Amino acid sequence: MRLIVPFSPGGGTDIQARLLGAKMHASTGQTFVIDNRTGAGRLIGAKIAVDSDPDGYTLLFTTATLAVNTTLFGKRMKFSALKDLAPISWVSSAPLVLVAHPSVPVKSVKELIALAQKHPGMIDIAVNTPGSTSHLSGEMLKQMGKIDAVIVPFRGGGPAVRAVMGGEVDMLFATAPSAMPHIRSGRLHALAVTTAKKASAFPDLPTMNSFYPGFESDNWYAMFFPARTPKAMVERMNTEVGKALKASDVQDFYKREGLDPVGSTPEALSALLKREIEKYAAIIKRGHIKM
């Protein structure tokens, strides 16, 4: 079984893929080979999966960037995320955490917005990479909070987190695993999470949609087959993913990394992808965002 991961080895997507692949190997006897194919905003790996034979032996494990890229790349995207992929399961949910440097004189989202409105253009918002859910969350904050803030792109979550810790920029919508140790050490001040419900890793933090209804940005992870893969194979893999997510060591891993295992029907993942594409399309168009 070929499991395509459109991210570099060692990242959150890659680690989850290897963990789940090992579990499914133990259950099915099939070997799951992780194939890291990066580039073009994660679209190279996705296109390879789309073009593969729909024989049930090639899978794609990707993230919410798939929904963002559908609008961001527009006609340059050589396939349809909705038509050319067969959803298997929504695998996990990862909150983004709104964090600020301790020197920023705010203790809540309301205070942050009030500060930004009082001093237009003063607040800098770091983003992991252009076109990421971190970036789109920053844009949502500007649009929904009606603030004038400066978006500062970085080449990855690590550099963005370090820039906030160093006081080079004021705030960031960071991935939970990258932010958690620095929140615990006090080097970052956490204000809210972006998931629809409170995140298990940050039970004391409010959600952004409690301040701005509709402000949701889940850095979700999901698994797909190429379109036209037989339904029986989709259903079998959906069962295997669900079984792997229930394993105690997998549950421990997700808890430790600040992630929530989900597991869903193929239909639920299809509905999620459609909603996410529509949501991010509206944000991108209102903000006139281009790659």
What gap, in angstroms, lies between the N and C termini?
A: 34 Å
3D shape: globular
What proportion strand? Answer: 15-25%
Q: What's the alpha carbon Rg, rounded to whole Å? A: 19 Å
Structural class: alpha/beta
Number of helices: 10
Count of extended strands: 11
Q: Into which percent range does the helicity of residues fall?
A: 40-55%
Strand ordering within the main sheet: 2-1-3-10-4-11
Low-confidence stretches: none
Biggest sheet record = 6 strands, mixed
Detailed description of the structure:
The protein is α/β, with parallel strands linked by helices and 291 residues long. It is 42% helix and 19% strand. It has helices at 12-28, 43-51, 65-72, 109-118, 133-145, 157-165, 176-185, 231-245, 248-257, 266-286, and strands at residues 2-5, 33-36, 58-63, 85-93, 96-100, 124-127, 150-153, 171-175, 189-193, 221-226, 260-261. Strand 6 (124-127), helix 5 (133-145) and strand 7 form a beta-alpha-beta unit. Helix 1 crosses helix 8, helix 3 (65-72) crosses helix 10 (266-286) and helix 5 packs across helix 10 (266-286). The chain starts with a strand and ends in a 5-residue tail after the last helix.
